[in-house]
């Protein structure tokens, strides 16, 4: 038997396509009345036969849409109110979004996310940012909005915005405020942290380092420690990072920065031996600068230490901690047995492969090569050649020899 509509509440008559993007057949579903009861007495319904909760939600969604339509969807304030009301109903919609009610609400929200009035999109972004079950298509659109007041709340807070979208946004080189908003998210995985750190945006990277909810992989932390040669404000943030590996704590101590050293010494996860080594490194750096021969020209000092067999990696590290690039250039000339002009040419070319090859020829480590890339050659952090598996040279001996040949350096 075909169900009849109750004469007390006719279906609303709407245009073929409403301005909120909802097709008429979906609107018909929302306002379809339940079948009239049979004329014979019906027993009290059992709990299993009770009306489904989704039915009342469908009615609420329909009421909101019709109310907005009748009030005039051309009004921005009405559309802003519609956005807020629909967002409040999202947690009660059937999960999965495959049913008709969810389709109606999602299509309306998608339309609102593309609204030409900024304050409508702002109202939607503010209302939806804390809803974990928000439609992914809606939050993805809002997150890419060109207006900061629209995109920032979603980028920073919305749990419904997945890592795939966030990685795509970071890869598109957005404005700095967008990167900073992402860096402030409550939880950040290692891949996303790596993308933010690799963006080259110093402020966003500093925010990431302050974020205890951000997982930063050890290779990324190591690269940031090296890059902190150009970003002194990162050092104390790095020194406070949870689970900082011992070797990176010692590397941070290479910088003559008493605030950083004190932050490292206050950590509860470093043993006494590590703390003692940090203190010793700091003392050695200070002694380097205060030594009686510190006024000696850097080239002459390098020659003297070379003759004494003391022109080692420690001496280069001490010199770089005080930005004594003249000493570093002289040391590379002596240890690699090449002309000073060649060393100058390689360092001034900002060529990470050639710099690494020069350090390898000088008999120094890849760790030293990364320091020289950052401090003596001034290579941009994103262009630096990183170590393989934490400490190994990423190029084979044959490859490094070929890079040196380009600068006239033979076997």
Secondary-structure blueprint of this entry?
Layout: H1 24-31, H2 53-71, H3 76-89, H4 100-113, H5 118-128, H6 136-143, H7 148-157, H8 163-171, H9 176-183, H10 190-197, H11 202-210, H12 218-227, H13 232-239, H14 246-252, H15 258-266, H16 272-290, H17 298-307, H18 313-321, H19 325-336, H20 340-348, H21 352-361, H22 366-375, H23 397-405
What report would you give on this structure?
58% of the residues lie in helices and 0% in strands. The protein has 411 residues and is mainly α. Helix 9 packs parallel to helix 11, helix 11 runs parallel beside helix 13 (232-239) and helix 19 packs across helix 20 (340-348). The protein is elongated, with a radius of gyration of 32 Å. It starts with 23 loop residues before the first helix and ends in a 6-residue tail after the last helix. The model is unreliable at 1-55 (pLDDT under 50).
Q: Summarize this, please?
A:
With 411 residues, the chain is mainly α.
Jot down its keywords.
mainly alpha; 23 helices; disordered N terminus
* Rg of Cα set: 32 Å
Report strand %. Answer: under 5%
Number of helices: 23
* Low-confidence residue ranges: 1-55
Secondary-structure element string? HHHHHHHHHHHHHHHHHHHHHHH
Question: Which shape, going by the Cα principal axes?
Answer: elongated
Q: Major beta sheet, specifics?
A: none
Secondary structural class: mainly alpha
Kindly state the percentage of residues in helix.
55-70%
Q: Averaging pLDDT over every residue, what do you get?
A: 80
